[in-house]
């Protein structure tokens, strides 16, 4: 994963996105989260042969909005709980710009879309931390090599 903060997010986003439809049940969505070991599902609609993201449903949404309020899970659908204020980013957007957007909006994940608004993937804070920790490690190695080279030349 070289390229760092100038890399387009389409190159590092997770393209294996777990999706649901807005009419699906909360129980179905929760089972998918468990099966695929994810904390969110992207709510989509099919338009003209494209998968278009409409919103996102997180495990936290289910806990805070339903379980903590003792709402019977069979009485609500994904549409009733999902976050409709979906924040998305173009697959061509740079890493640094995306981080700034996520920070400004206080979000831990962002849906990645193509130029037509079709779902490409999802990018999480964990994906970004993995990329940036690799970049920092490379920087630290550079510093150590420079130090070793100086030691060799000065005896």
From TrEMBL:
Keyword Phosphoprotein: no
tRNA processing keyword on record: no
InterPro entries per record: CBS_dom, CBS_dom_sf, Diverse_CBS-Domain
Residue ranges of every copy of the CBS domain listed in the record: 13-73, 82-139
PROSITE patterns: CBS
Alphabetic keyword roster: CBS domain
Domain of life of the organism encoding this protein: Bacteria
PANTHER family attached to this UniProt entry: CBS DOMAIN-CONTAINING PROTEIN (PTHR43080:SF2), CBS DOMAIN-CONTAINING PROTEIN CBSX3, MITOCHONDRIAL (PTHR43080)
Record protein name field: Cbs domain containing protein
């Amino acid at each position: 994963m070289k390229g760092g903060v100038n890399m387009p997010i389409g190159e590092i986003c997770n393209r294996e996105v777990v999706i649901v439809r807005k009419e699906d049940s909360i129980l179905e969505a929760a089972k998918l989260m468990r099966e695929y070991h994810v904390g969110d599902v992207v709510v989509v609609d099919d338009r003209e042969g494209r998968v278009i993201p409409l919103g996102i449903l997180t495990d936290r949404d289910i806990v805070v909005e339903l379980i903590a309020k003792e709402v019977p899970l069979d009485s609500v659908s994904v549409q009733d709980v999902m976050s409709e204020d979906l924040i998305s980013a173009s697959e061509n957007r740079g890493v640094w710009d995306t981080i700034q957007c996520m920070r400004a909006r206080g979000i831990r994940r962002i849906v990645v879309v193509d130029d037509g608004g079709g779902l490409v993937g999802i990018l999480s804070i964990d994906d970004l931390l993995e990329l940036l920790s690799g970049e920092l490690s490379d920087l630290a190695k550079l510093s150590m090599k420079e130090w070793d080279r100086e030691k060799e030349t000065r005896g």
